[in-house]
Design brief:
The complex is a heterodimer of chains A (113) and B (116). By secondary structure, chain A is an all-beta fold. Helix content of chain A is 0%, strand content 51%. Chain A is built from no helices and 13 strands. Chain B is mainly β and 116 residues long. Chain B has no helices and 11 strands. Chain B has strands at 3-7, 10-12, 18-25, 34-39, 45-51, 58-60, 68-73, 78-83, 92-98, 105-106, 110-114. The chains are: A mainly beta (113), B mainly beta (116). Chain A binds chain B through residues 38, 40, 49-50, 52, 55-56, 59, 61, 93, 95, 97, 100-104, 106-107, and chain B through 35, 37, 44-47, 50, 59, 61, 93, 95, 99-100, 102-109.
């Protein structure tokens, strides 16, 4: 099984500043079928389901603001919020969908400093 | 527009049973593997089960193996999760999900509460 390790567990960032969340997989999630990394990022606010932000590691979901970006390949991935807004306060998860069982990072709680 | 909508959650006593459904629309349901994922309120996400596109292959998390059964009806565009011998620790929001359409798609979830 692939283990997903996220860091940090929590992050306090000033409004307008950059937030960076890291995710490491225990093995490569590079799909041979399309040469893309099967890695997604989610944002979850209290009482809501996870919302897809990024998939294939760096493809932004339709409607997601361009201050969100994803990068990385193989086993190391990053979600960056370039200029934190108040509405970005949430828990963020990474997930691999390269293989079953699907696996998730433990989550990173982002707050305003 | 891709839509997944779960139903069938509720309050059940330990040892009881519940059947969840997930109605799919907006994509070729019969072409995709489908998953159930759960989340204890306030905690992280845990994969529960997967079924392949024609229903001939299934897999489960160890914690639910032998108690839960995933199935699908491609004619009705519906995914199911039969949950038997429910335990207090099965209390969670249950989501159905599909991957790579072209990205992941999730339903809003249905809450299952196991309590006496």
């Amino acid at each position: 099984d692939i283990v997903m390790t996220q860091s940090p567990d929590s992050l306090s960032v000033s409004l307008g500043e950059r937030a960076t969340i890291n995710c490491k997989s225990s093995q490569s999630v590079l799909s041979s079928s399309n040469n893309q990394n099967a890695l997604a990022w989610y944002q979850q606010k209290p009482g809501q389901p996870p919302k897809v932000l990024m998939y294939w590691a760096s493809t932004r979901e339709s409607g997601v603001p361009d201050r969100f970006s994803g990068s990385g390949s193989g086993t190391d991935f990053t979600l960056t919020i370039s200029s934190l807004q108040a509405e970005d306060v949430a828990v963020y998860y990474c997930q691999q969908y390269y293989t079953t069982p699907l696996s998730f990072g433990g989550g990173t709680k982002v707050e305003i400093k | 527009e891709v839509q997944l909508v779960e139903s069938g959650g509720g309050l059940v006593q330990p040892g009881g049973s519940l059947r969840l459904s997930c109605a799919a629309s907006g994509f070729s349901f019969s072409n995709y593997y489908m998953h159930w994922v759960r989340q204890v309120p306030g905690k992280g996400l845990m994969w529960v089960s997967r079924i392949n596109s024609d229903g001939s292959g299934t897999t489960y998390a160890d914690s639910v193996k032998g108690r839960f059964t995933i199935s699908r009806d491609n004619a009705k565009n519906t995914l199911y999760l039969q949950m038997n011998s429910l335990r207090v620790e099965d209390t969670a929001v249950y989501y159905c999900a599909a991957m790579a359409i072209p990205g992941p798609r999730w339903g809003p979830g249905t809450l299952v509460t196991v309590s006496s």
